Amino acid sequence: MIASGTFGYDGYGRGITPDMDLSQLGAVIPKTVTRLPREGNPEPRWDPPSYRQALQDGEFILLNSIGLANPGIEGALTDLTP
User: pTM for this one?
Assistant: First the structure.
């Protein structure tokens, strides 16, 4: 089973090679798709902006505020499905 947001480089399967045998997968859970397209939250979406820098600085808090950016159901069906 492919977990949500981990299928391909964009979470929707982009970058998966055409010769990959998808029949071996039990399920694919895509990233969130809403009824209408969403741009998501304005930048910055991550705080601190650099996870590596935060670790070097001894910070242990990571805020993820993407805001469900997605193409909407019609866009997903048209542009993202095989």
Answer: 0.60
Q: CB under 8 Å to 70, separation ≥6 — which residues?
A: 31, 32, 33, 34, 37, 38, 40, 76
How many angstroms separate the most distant Cα atoms in the chain? 45
61-81: pLDDT as tens digits = 666 777 888 899 999 889 877
Domain of residue 61, residue span: 32-80
**β-bridge mates for residue 28, sequence order:** 2
Asked if the structure places residue 6 within a domain, the reply is no
- Residues 38, 43, 58, CA angle at the centre, nearest 5°? 130
